[in-house]
Structures are given as structure tokens and as C-alpha cells.
UniProtKB/TrEMBL annotation:
Keyword Methyltransferase: yes
Species in which this protein is naturally found: Streptomyces acidicola
Record keyword Cell membrane present: no
Xref: CDD domains: AdoMet_MTases (cd02440)
Name of the protein described by the UniProt record: Class I SAM-dependent methyltransferase
GO molecular function terms noted in the UniProt entry: methyltransferase activity
Keywords: Methyltransferase, Transferase
Amino acid sequence: MSTAHEATARDGTKRPWSADPYADALRTGRGPLFLRRSDGWLLPLDVERWCARADAVDLAVLDRCEGAVLDVGCGPGRLVVELAARGRSALGIDVSEAAVAHTAALGGRALWRSVFEPLPGEGRWNTALLLDGNLGIGGDPRALLRRLAELLRPGGLLIAETAPADVDERVEVRLVYGPDARGSADALFPWARLGTPALLRYAGPLGWSADDQWSAGDRCFVALRSRSTSSSAEPPKSTAVISSQRVKKPSADSPVTGS
């Protein structure tokens, strides 16, 4: 099995999701893959579902999307690809080069970049998606919600998947392949887990308003609206436009499209 070393962001930090366990799981389309806390607790990652086509629960989420869609932590791209098949303007971003390449191979547009780095269409996206546990990105829910408010247009829609339990935790974890930690990535990184009550507690003081919440199967979701007016005096911005520039190899600075 081929391996991929951890990628390095422009600020010199490592991208843990580009380490061997995750990259290899995406190549094979299967786990078992976990996030492991220092106390040994394991959070299973649903690699098989992520690498499959969008299921009925996913499709119902995508039916709610408005305008141009930014999929934050797009993984192997099932949602971006489905949106593209519907003729929707959509871009995935992910810190895993393997995930971005997988998305591009399926015909979706994706960018190898963190949500906290500069992105195209800032302030113009109509919808942002935070599914598959991606509320945990960065381990700081307030910082993530503030950043998403910057990316969305005023009154934009955020659809987030929450933990099924009433949980609110911020921890350091590492990626491991299998319960015996075989193929473990060396680097610890911050992560968070939020249930719906915790997300709403963070969102309200930051100017988000609750639009809806629902569950389907064993998955839970919340729809939030960003502030309806911009804090600046600038006129409303138009819908985000995604570059169709083609590149031969995914990079930290370039969007990736299928060949």
C-alpha cells in the first residue's frame, strides 16, 4: 500500500488528515479508522459511508441547500459530486490532499486548504456545510462559527451535523487505524464534539439564528442563519463564483477540478 506523508500548511503547521491512516483509508474506501484521545477513548470514523455515494439522509440535506455551496471538510467528495450532478455551484475544501484528489477524480471541484486560510468567494457563499463531525474542526467552536460567518453572505445558511448525544467537549486526538493504533499518525491535533444544545449555546451570542433542527436515522442536524445584515457599510455581495481553473496536481493554493 502506498503511503502519504503529512502535508505542511503555509504557516508551517502539519495537516494531520493528510497522514498515512486517513489517506490510505480513502484509497481503499474502508477503515477501521478512529480518532483516539489520550485516555484511549476511540471515536469511529465512517469511512465506508464517506467513500460511498450520497445516501438518502445526505440527499435530504442537499435539498435544503441554497445557491452556491461550500462543503467544509469535504472528505472524498460525495456531497460536492452530488451537488455538481444537480447542476449546483459547489466547492469542497479539505486539509487532506488525498481527499481533494479523490473529489476531483469524481468530477467535483475541491481545494486543498483549511477553512481558516484565505478562500475564494469570502462573504458570498449562500450555504456552508459542516457534516460528518466537521463541527470539530480546530477544536474551537466559537472560532469556527465566526469564520463561517465571514464566508457566508448576510443571511446565509449553515447546515451542521451534531453529535447525537448532548455533549460539549474539546480534546486533543490523533488518527489511528484500528483499535491497536496500527498506522497511528504522530501528531496530536485539537478536536471538538458538540450536540445540538451545545451548538445552539455557542451560535446565539455570535449572531446566528436557529432556522431548523432535525434527525434522520442516527444522525442529527441543525440549520443556522448568519446575521441578515453585514457589519460593514459595503453593499451586498453577489453569489460566490467558483473558478474553473484546471491544475495538474492539487496544491495548497489551487482549486482542483476533474480532468
